[in-house]
């Protein structure tokens, strides 16, 4: 399979020590990547691990703060995507960037070097010939004169690839190319990749579908928490091993000490159903969380976790079953009433659901607690009270900020999250919903947030923990439930289960421990 | 980002709507020829649309121009903005009166309230208002009004005579009491000739949307609808929208006629449609303005309510499309005499 | 900490700089247009400013601004929660018509009479806007579309109602038609605000000030205002925080419409006393421009209203001097567009500057590698 260049040649792409910071977060840290010509090189990692940031660096969409990019042995500085294209790097985005109302040919030549193809009406014929040539050469045949809106997903992707090849790309970056394809289209894509590879092109294949990666890639690089942690040989590595590398095992331990679980139920869900357009988003969900208990909810993303949380929060109206909080039936309550009754909520996406980014910290402290002391008195906002209490949270929860008047967007992800945790722990909650509480935060903040959750548990809170980080889930939870396609399918004991077993249960493959 | 886009879109819309409020403006040019001179300064405030509206503002302008040429008076024209308040109109009249213009003419009934106030402030200035007679009691305001229903009566009769289908149409620009006078006269005239005639009535817009005076596209579709419903003669009392009516009539082919309004549109309409304009209901705003200015120059200014009707040719029907109108003049002139003689009373209410 | 104070000072400076720059830019562009049309820009602006300083004109400017202020506040109220009430125009016209009809039909003691008219206007405007709110909440139709359509429906509705057999009376000899005049008890007299002016400022300027204050107080100080702003800035977070967005949409639309209902009142109760064919239309659209210009704040909108009042009123003199007065429409349009762009630039600059500042302060405090000053290039 592998052409000779593997051992001998100069790498087509070499990234060394790439570090990229965004205000408040480090998206990439000391990333190293070597892609040989004529190979398919997979870059795998969890959502938010930093794959996209890295590829944007390679494609010249932003400059790295540290590190070097070397293409075919020549160190380069890419100021913008045109630079990258000029040096033979092409990118096929996950979301196609095609104009539906133009033909394939028009889409392909759109924005191509105007010097060569300026006044493309004249060069239409030349462009058509060229597209046909590319099609023949790489086995990517598409009628240049058909409207893009008439094409299926697989063909559109092919147009995207041709568009990149048309500009002379020798390195193709494919961002999650299979996410939108059906299995047959995936097969066709992989065949095309083999042809491209045989012609000496390099392909960087970004994915988190491990089986695919193992079948198509010649090399694998794993990214975790913004840095490259390992390379692997697809012939020998197993999907489980890859998953482990992605999730990591040398992280600070999220172990909890002795159990604080009581027999006092705080949250009870009985036979909760949620149906949308005839499809069950949640089916017969029954669970109980006691005071002092952390219930971990494991599952592959998109299996109903968000819907479950939103049902508890009252952001969705359930279609059946009851939800009880501290012996009160809250099934029909509004979100505000539920919050007032003592539900704290650390949302999965803090920018979308947890914060108002262009509001100062103290206003964000009021958010979700608009009706409660000390933020408001009667119908008015108590600015002094809210500000004082924000100062308290900033101090107690170690939110690193120069002032409570800065905008929430100015803080790093970890500090934003600590502010949210502090806010949600205010006002004596009975139940805390923590959805991916440490996603996208740095290691220091992660440890701090784990401490906060442990403290909350020790104080007798019931905690519903949702996380894609299986170590976190196993380490913090007193009991674990697996959700699959909207159903709670297994109960596992966190003290005995391994991430591998849990992973199998999540995909419905393995046996429940 | 999305928010910004939305904002910009709204800003653009707002700007556009602002821009849309402004009409074209071919403003005054105060060049004095070598012709006779006079120390009379005439101020004229237009209604929305101003000079160039191909409707009654233009007609007023024509009268003013004629007076300027003949007597060498100095003139000053000010234009109105869409959706302005009475305060703005008041200020416009006041600026003219304050600037020593005397007489000051307001084109359109919208100036009634404001002129009432300003006339009181400047008792030594003579004002005139077109299309309104609520200020009849104010000594220094002359009301220049027209018997539109009489002229419309005649063209209604002509329409009924010319119609082979027994079905005629009335396209009004904007549904105001003023335009309803046109409608009333037209209907009565048509029914006087053929009591079974069907008269279709449509207005292009409703106040405060005055776009019906400047929407030839609407005029065309409306007329087309009337033709489809059997009409073969259509009276277009719709200012600039009349052009659309003419186009629809032209497209309908032989034996279809249009009737114009205000000025003699056989002479002013585009060449390819003029032959289908049977006649026009002339409303001589130009005459009224001219006469009024002339009276000022002569030192015997017209005062009170000056009604222009069939008897003094203030309203009339045009004869310039000679071949076409010839068969109908006898009947029309007979009716005209009867109206002047008082044997026929034309109501101004539809 | 004084770094941050400096930042605050700079922020305030920038906020002022944005509209000033926008106005300056529009003056430049207007000058170019004027010059290319053969008019002297300096002379033109001088004439406008001199004319504006005449007591009579000043009064007119203030009166125009009072009306504009209500319109802009109505629009701004919706804007604050990302609701685009393009229907202020229809709302105030319908409100003014019905309020005029009610006011002209009854005789009451002064306070009651005026109060009744204002109440009718607010309720009509509010209910009419609430139609768009209901359609948005229960049918998911964008309020932009519905309010624009309601404007047209309003026009048709008014044409239907403003006839002699419904709400209007036909005065003999007039080609106008309007509601019966509101008797003296329902009128609001003017105030001699400008010295040496024969004209009076609308008495309802007091109401405008009160509404402006309430606007500020409700939005900036009340829980309701907090929910409203939260919804405007991040609807999903607001939902998660317990805001009932549907209810907020309905209430906000109704309040926006209620304020819109007041737009026609200075004219109705202070000048015309009747709703007739020539009742001013289109002020709702001016309100949109002014709300954008004033950044939806009570003070900013007041300044914007005065600026537009000045431009509209002073443009009268241009016609007299032989300059097409439509030139001010160009000025207004450019101001609005450049203000939107300028504010957005300033907003982004502020965020980046603040992030850099936070990073710098934290790194000097902690020396941690992860929070070095960020070279943000956004």
TrEMBL record, chain A:
Supply the alphabetized keyword list. ATP-binding, Cell membrane, Membrane, Nucleotide-binding, Repeat, Translocase, Transport
TM segments?
none
Q: Domain ABC transporter, which positions?
A: 13-250, 267-510
The terms under GO molecular function for this entry are: ATP binding; ATP hydrolysis activity
Task: Indicate yes or no for the key word S-adenosyl-L-methionine.
Answer: no
Where is this chain primarily localised? membrane
Q: Which PROSITE patterns match?
A: ABC_TRANSPORTER_1, ABC_TRANSPORTER_2
In Swiss-Prot or TrEMBL terms, this protein is called ABC transporter ATP-binding protein
Among SMART domains, the record links this protein to: AAA
Subcellular location, in the record's words? Cell membrane
Instruction: Extract the InterPro entries matched here.
Output: AAA+_ATPase, ABC_carbohydrate_import_ATPase, ABC_transporter-like_ATP-bd, ABC_transporter-like_CS, P-loop_NTPase
Q: Where is it found, in Gene Ontology cellular component terms?
A: plasma membrane
**This protein's record includes keyword Transport:** yes
Membrane topology, as annotated? Peripheral membrane protein
Automatic annotation (TrEMBL), chain C:
User: Which terms does the record give in the GO molecular function aspect?
Assistant: transmembrane transporter activity
Q: How does it sit in the membrane?
A: Multi-pass membrane protein
Principal location class: membrane
Q: Where in the cell is it found?
A: Cell membrane
Q: Which InterPro entries match?
A: ABC_transp_permease
A Pfam cross-reference name: BPD_transp_2
List all membrane-crossing ranges. Answer: 12-37, 57-79, 91-108, 114-135, 144-162, 199-219, 249-269, 275-293, 298-315, 327-346
- Presence of keyword ATP-binding: no
Q: Which UniProt keywords apply?
A: Cell membrane, Membrane, Transmembrane, Transmembrane helix
Name a single GO cellular component: plasma membrane
Q: What is this protein called?
A: ABC transporter permease
Organism classification, top ranks? Bacteria, Bacillati, Actinomycetota, Actinomycetes, Kineosporiales
